[in-house]
Amino acid sequence: VKLPLLKIKSYSHRGSQVIITFIKVFEEGNRCLAFFILGGILMSWIYLLIVGIFEVVWATTKKLSNGFSVLSYSLATLVGIAISFGSLVLATKNLSLSIAYPIWTGIGAVGDVIVGVVLFHDQFSAVTWIFVAMLVVSIIGIKMTTGH
Prior knowledge:
Layout: E1 5-13, E2 16-28, E3 31-40, H1 41-64, H2 71-91, H3 97-120, H4 126-145
Antiparallel strand pairs: 1-2, 2-3
């Protein structure tokens, strides 16, 4: 039995370190079973995007669950919460909570507004849309000024 081969490669993209860990499970002839794990600051930002998306997913499915009375949407809500919080844990390995949390809630807030308009036909005044735009600008501003 051959033990897995662990190779660690480190790449840099726009100054952000990306760590790619390749784990080769087995190799036989020209067949190889392997997987890789991404890490580093860039992956933390990707995890943060996942956090925001699943924030919208669980909030939407919570509404669709009709007070947790529809089992499929209730289960989807719980899965969305687990993925959202799990991704937040991974994101805060390399990002401070003071950066990650406002971006997480901002993505969720803007995403929920969009889902509300598209899926639930919510209507907002022009002033509300200005504030939504300010949220987007704030999220981008936090990202641009963090140095990550």
